[in-house]
Structure formats: C-alpha cells, structure tokens
UniProtKB/TrEMBL annotation:
Organism per entry: Henriciella mobilis
Entry function: Catalyzes the condensation of the acetyl group of acetyl-CoA with 3-methyl-2-oxobutanoate (2-ketoisovalerate) to form 3-carboxy-3-hydroxy-4-methylpentanoate (2-isopropylmalate).
EC assignment: 2.3.3.13
Binding of Mn(2+), residues: D16, H204, H206, N240
Enzyme class, broadest EC rank: transferase
Record's keyword annotation contains Transferase: yes
Signal sequence coordinates: none
Keyword entries, A-Z: Acyltransferase, Amino-acid biosynthesis, Branched-chain amino acid biosynthesis, Cytoplasm, Leucine biosynthesis, Manganese, Metal-binding, Transferase
Quaternary assembly: Homodimer.
Official protein name in the record: 2-isopropylmalate synthase
Gene transcribed to yield this protein: leuA
Reaction(s) the record says it catalyses: 3-methyl-2-oxobutanoate + acetyl-CoA + H2O = (2S)-2-isopropylmalate + CoA + H(+)
C-alpha cells in the first residue's frame, strides 16, 4: 500500500486546450488523442463542449462510446439545453461526467453574464440538479473563482454541493494567483463550506503569470485531489497547467510532495509530440520534461559531468518520460571528453596527437557554425586523416 495520496488527473487538452486560437482538432484527431490519453492512465478526459458544435457533440459521443476505463466528461454552461446536450453525448461512456459552470466574479457577472448574484446563485442550484438527473457524476465550476468575493463563492459552492455536485473545481481562469494564495484559498474553502469532505476538490489553473503548475501543486498540498491540466500546457492565452510537468513534479519530488498519479510517464513524450503535430503548435525547445533540449547538454563542464554520472545534471531519467536517451550536443562550448566520446560513437579512436588536432579543428568549426552535426565531425576527421595519409 502506498502512503501517498492519489491525485486524479483530469485532462482538458481537447476542451480548454482546443480553445487556444488555431488549435482546433478534427474528429479523427480527437479520437486518436483520447486513445493515447486513456492508455496513458488519464483518469478523466474532458473531450469537448458538446453544445458548441455538431462536430464536438459527435466527437464527445464517439469518445464516450469507445472509452474503457477513463471517465469521459463534457463541458456545459448553466442552461438546460447545454446540459442536456452534454448529457446526451457523455451517456455512452462507462463513466460519464457532466461539467457545468457559471461565472461568479463581480466583473464576469456584471459585464459578461449581466446577471446579479441572486440570479447566479439560483442558476447554480438549478444547473447542478438538472445535470444530476442525467448522470451521477457532476462537476461544478465557478468561473473566475479566484477573483470572486469569498463569501459569495462559499454560498455558490454550498449550493452546488447541496444540489448534488460530486467534484468542485476552483478555476484560476485568468491565471492571477500565486501559489501560497491559491493553496490558502483551497484550504479556506474546504474549512468553511459544510460537507466539503463529501466532494473532490479540483484545481484548474491558467498560466498567464507562468504559475499554473506551481498553483496546481499548492492546491494539492492544501487538499485538492484532482488536477485539471493539458498536454504541453495547451490552452487559452498562455495556456493551462502542463500535465507532464505536474505528473513529473510528483514523481521526482515524492520526498516532499507525497502524491501519486495513475499516469504511465513513459508515454509523456509521445503524447506531447502528438498534440504538437495535431495542433501545429511547436513545443518550445527548453520546455520542461518534453522540450527538445530537456535532456540535451552542450557545455563542456556539463558534458564531462554527464559522461561520469548522469545524476550530475539530470534529476530524472529520459526513459522515464519516453525519451530514449540524453544527448550531448556538439557545439562551441563542448569539451574534449565529450568530443572523444562522440568520435568513439562514430567509430573513431584517435591517438592523443590526432585527437588534439581533431579537437582544434572541431572548435574552429563550432565557432563558425551554430550546429555541428555528426556528419560535420565525420567530414572533419576524414579530412584530417587523409591529409595525414592514413
Ligand atoms: O478557466 C476556466 O474557468 C474554465 C472553466 C470553464 C472551468 O475553463
Ligand atoms: Zn480554463
């Protein structure tokens, strides 16, 4: 038995991720991605927003039909039409969930909804009860929760729980929080609202200040047991908490973050590549966990350390996230040891003088050229050896 608390991973790449401008996915792409997410061990897949289009309705319905172990969830606003459509799509799943939401912050209620607090509160109770008549698993979200007045937020959440919500999500819709503050909010809500122990508390953090993952972790440290996130952190504006970062933070830092997920982390790189390919959004080179450079080393000092023991500069094994091995990239900062190692890999073992000469030529070339490829090194050594008549 593990002494760690289980965190449910709720993937919203196909809903909040797809809301990223230019990231829309076809029916087939959604089915393929859902298959990958389920195989990877995602607990809840938010497959779309069924009432937003016929296409999304069909994609969510088909994902629900094909699902095996994952809960399949759809998003709906707080109207009967939205909720019914969502229920009709997810009902094919072995484990269907309706996720319904309404804004609760003053700025959203006044300008977006043009509704007063009483009308919003009434809509919370009605929407959740309506959803509960369709499925047993209902998640409720107060949109812009983190800019909502605390007492009103508590009233709305209380109404949602009383009306049958089973998961309460606390969205930091505009990525405004910092970790201590977000963690404290989750804790105060849990401590203030009656029957808070009857529901699962969930985080949903946006990345406008680059704090989405840190805020999600702070939420877990304060009692949240579901984290909403997306592959590659895809999502509106600066995106959502990145699934791969949250999951690896728990795996690597289990000493001080006593949480575990059901994710098979060796599938992370593949999922990242797939989302990048489908959406056409490149993954930034230095992106944590799945970026091209996440396991690449160029400086001589680091390469030397890596050749002696990989723990000198790596806190996780590349294989653990599905990358076959670390790479020592040859460039102007590379050292002699890494160069010798590279030559060996390319099939050359030079005597000390030849190695010195080859290394000098390599440094000359690296000063002029941004990337020195294996072919460049092969050409350089062949040229040197033929000049020496070997
Ligand atoms: O960011 C947000 O508030 C959302 C909700 C719809 C959950 O995505
Ligand atoms: Zn969101």
């Amino acid at each position: 038995m593990s002494d760690k608390d289980r965190i449910l991973i709720f993937d919203t790449t196909m809903r909040d991720g797809e809301q990223s401008p230019g990231a829309s996915m076809t029916h087939k792409e959604k089915l393929d991605l859902a298959e990958i997410l389920e195989a990877m061990g995602v607990d809840i897949i938010e497959a779309g927003f069924p009432n937003s289009s016929q296409g999304d309705f069909e994609a969510v319905s088909e994902i629900a039909r094909r699902s095996k172990s994952a809960t399949i969830c759809g998003l709906s606003r707080a109207t009967e039409k939205d909720i019914q459509r969502c229920g009709d799509a997810v009902r094919h799943a072995a484990r269907p969930r309706i996720h319904t939401f309404i804004s609760t912050s003053p700025v959203h209620m006044k300008h977006k909804l043009q509704m007063g607090p009483n009308a919003v509160l009434e809509a919370v109770g009605h929407s959740v009860s309506f959803a509960r008549n369709l499925v047993d698993d209902v998640e409720w979200s107060p949109e812009d929760a983190t800019r909502t007045e605390f007492d009103f937020l508590c009233k709305c959440i209380d109404a949602a729980i009383t009306s049958g919500a089973t998961t309460i999500n606390v969205p930091d819709t505009v990525g405004y929080m910092h970790p201590e503050e977000y963690g404290a909010l989750i804790r105060s809500l849990r401590e203030t609202i009656p029957n808070s122990d009857k529901v699962i508390w969930s985080t949903h953090c946006h990345n406008d200040l680059g704090l989405a993952v840190a805020n999600s972790i702070a939420g877990a440290q304060n009692g949240a047991r579901q984290i909403e996130c997306t592959i590659n952190g895809l999502g509106e504006r600066a995106g959502n908490a990145a699934l791969e970062e949250v999951v690896m933070a728990f795996k690597v830092r289990g000493d001080s973050l006593p949480f575990e997920t059901g994710i098979d982390t060796t599938r992370l790189a593949r999922a990242s590549q797939m989302v990048s390919r489908i959406t056409g959004f490149p993954v930034q080179y230095n992106k944590a966990i799945v970026g091209k450079n996440a396991f690449a080393h160029e400086s001589g000092i680091h390469q030397d350390g890596m050749l002696k023991n990989t723990e000198t500069y790596e806190i996780m094994k590349p294989e653990d996230v599905g990358v076959s091995k670390s790479s020592l990239v040859m460039g102007k900062l590379s050292g002699r040891n890494a160069f010798r190692d590279k030559l060996k890999m390319l099939g050359y073992e030079l005597d000390p003088d030849s190695l010195n000469e080859a290394f000098r030529r390599f440094k000359d070339l690296a000063d002029k050229k941004k990337h020195v490829f294996d072919d460049d090194i092969l050409a350089l050594v062949d040229d040197q050896l033929s000049a020496m008549g070997e």
